[in-house]
Amino acid sequence: MLRFLILSSLILWQCSPNRQTEIYRFDQIIVTKFPTNPPPAFPQSFFPEKANFLQSSEFKTSHIHTKEAFLHLETTESWEEIQRRIDLRVNQGDWKLIEKNSSESEVSYLLEGFIKKSLSIYLTKNGENNQLRFYFKKHSTY
Questions:
Q1: 88 by DSSP, 3-state: which?
Q2: Per-residue pLDDT tens over the stretch 110-126
């Protein structure tokens, strides 16, 4: 009986969901499932303090410069706190708010930065957690 208990617990432990980082590279495109860090193109100050990164992707024009990027994350931080953080960050002046649309379960922001950069943020309610999707695009070559 003890052997059966040990064997079944090992099998169940191996079947538990695994959040191991997976990285796929295709020339200038990098896709990451469960990244440990967000792509460097995104301003870190928009992120919640306790964020669980689910997926990211980057399109680079060279090894350093990111042309487009995407990040999907999940957080337990409250809906109001996330919106307050984004609004405070926009009021600092380096990102200009172009458009904000909101409904009961989703808020979207369209921001414009210096040197022809754009950032879209989508905040969605998902049960106890809130999900954020970030889209970044650089429209210039420098």
A1: helix
A2: 999 888 889 999 999 88
- 71 pairs with which residues across the strands? 56, 134
Residue 13 has, within 13 A of its CA and on its CB side, a CA count of 6
The neighbour count for residue 100, using CB atoms within 10 Å, is: 15
- Note the pTM of the prediction, 2 decimals: 0.81
pLDDT per residue as tens digits for the range 70-112: 999 999 998 889 999 999 988 887 889 999 999 988 999 999 9
**For residue 86, what are the contacts with CB-CB under 8 A and spacing of at least 6?**
46, 109, 121, 123
Question: Which residues are CB-contacts of 87 (< 8 A; sequence separation ≥ 6)?
Answer: none
CB 123 within 8 A of CB 82: yes
